[in-house]
Structure formats: structure tokens, C-alpha cells
Amino acid sequence: MPSALLTRRFYALDVPSGAGWAIDYARTDPATPGGTAVFRTKPATLIAPEDALPGRDATMPIEGVHPVLARPIVPPFPDGAEHAFFGMGCFWGAERSFWTTPGVLVTAVGYQGGQTPNPTYHEVCAGRTNHTEAVLVAWDPRDVTFESLLRTFWEGHDPTQGMRQGNDVGTQYRSAIYATTDEQLRQAETSRDNYQRALAAAGHGAITTEIRGGAGGEPTGGALVGGAIPFYYAEPDHQQYLHKVPHGYCGHGETGVSCPVGLVDVG
Questions:
Q1: Tens-place pLDDT, residues 181-221
Q2: Could you say which of 12, 29, 54, 224 would form a disulfide bridge with 6 (CB–CB 3.0 to 4.6 Å)?
Q3: Domain total for the chain?
């Protein structure tokens, strides 16, 4: 069994409590018997960028191939591949949603959208980096469209929950799409508007998904840096976690609302 710290929400870092901090609890992964839930506090809102942890220069040591897709999880990706990044709560289940999608070439999990360079899992979960848990998805556009991946994204979680996803509370669980091209950004924003209408018709609230462009960058060890939103690979234990522990924790809560036909069409 991997050393995957199978206590999904147990943190070594102590953080202060007070106004603006939300109560969350550590839950032991169902694959590990005898675990105990413990309560702790962490911020329910993003902190000021200047208050983020300083991080480090050393990148995460990442190597090997994807155990399902049989390709390296670090660039270079296959010729002609496109890639983008998605945050939809706990990255364990989010990654599995994409690696099971035909046409996807590579997936990996990491931290993105905040200020701390090369953070650790515990730092991100303490709410002191402003990162969200993100999934890198590389795909062959001849076999799957970005629109299809957006459907997987929107239908695979509840994008109206702000800084949480189901029972998982904290800024690292916020919904996000980080695009690497202008066309991806356009489609992401259009799909949000179209899906919002479908959600509203079903009685759901406003989408809170963060959508930004300029993501990614050049590979530097266990990171993709140089773009506006660097992606920092998570620790090896977290990569393809639900392949290693098939019955492990997955905290997503879908809305049950299907995406409309013409998801990325303006209208």
C-alpha cells in the first residue's frame, strides 16, 4: 500500500483560530481502518497575498509514468497535445474523473492559483498559500474536445459552493479552471454562462468557479512555471491516488444537472 498518509484531512500545521476562519475536520480515508476524526480551523477566505507562506525554490521530485495512461506525468507531452487545469474539490477524485475520459493522455495533481512557490500538501491544507487543489489534464484534440472536458468538469462537482466542496471546507477546495489558450478561456467562460442558466432553472445558486487564463508555463522539475498561474506538482503519494487506493476518499457532490447542448456556443 502506498505511504499515502491515508488520513485525508489530518494536518501537522497548527493555525490560529478567530474571525474569518472555518471549522473543518480530519477524516481518515475509508481504506484505512480505525481512524479518528479531529477538528481544526482554517481560513474560509483567501488571505492577503503578502501573508502567504514563502515556500521554497526546490521543486517536488516527480518521476515515473502514469499507472493507468502509461505516459510520463511531466512534460513534454505527446506532439499535438493540449492541456489545461481544473480545480473541483479534492484532487484525488477529480483526477480519476479525467483519466477515465477517452482521449485524455496524461493527468497529474498539484497546487495552483495561489502565491506560495513549491508548497507542500500540509501548507496548502492550512489555507496559507491561496492555492487550490488542481488537476493537470493533457489530451489529444483529435480524440476529445475541450467542450467534452468542460462537461466532465461542470457535471463532476457542485460549482456553486465557494470555498468548499461537500464536507471539505477551505480555500483549497474552490472550483477553478485555469486555461492555457485564449480559445480555452473563451469556451470556459461561455460554458459557465450556459451552465449557470441550467443550474438556475433547477433551483441552484450562482456559480463561484474561478476562471483565469495564462496558466502553466515551462517545465522546471516538479512544476510548470513562467505562466501567470504556475502549477506545482503534488507529492508522489497523491498522484493517481485512487488507482493506488481504489476505494479511497472522494468528496465530490454533483448537482445532478446536465450541461446543455452547445455548451460552448454563444447564445
A1: 999 999 999 999 999 999 999 999 999 999 999 998 888 88
A2: 29
A3: 1
Give the model confidence (pLDDT) of 77-94 as tens digits: 999 999 999 999 999 999
Handedness of CA 124, 5, 56, 94 (dihedral sign): negative
Number of CB atoms found within 10 A of residue 150's CB: 24
The owner of cell 480559445 is 183
| Cα-to-chain-centroid distance, residue 198 | 23
**Residue in this structure with the C-alpha cell 497548527, named with its chain if needed:** 14
DSSP β-bridge partners for residue 41: 23
115 is a domain residue? yes
Q: Does 136 reside within a domain?
A: yes
Tell me if 229 sits within 8 A of 178, measured CB to CB: yes
Q: Phi, psi (5° rounding) for residue 41?
A: -125, 155
For residue 125, indicate whether it is catalytic.
Answer: no
pLDDT band at 253 (very low <50, low <70, confident <90, very high): confident
Alpha carbons 230 and 165: distance in angstroms, whole number: 23
Q: Which residues pair with 43 in a beta bridge?
A: 21
Angle, CA of 51, 52 and 57, to the nearest 5°: 135
H or E stretch covering 38? strand 38-43
Q: Is residue 116 one of the residues assigned to a domain? A: yes
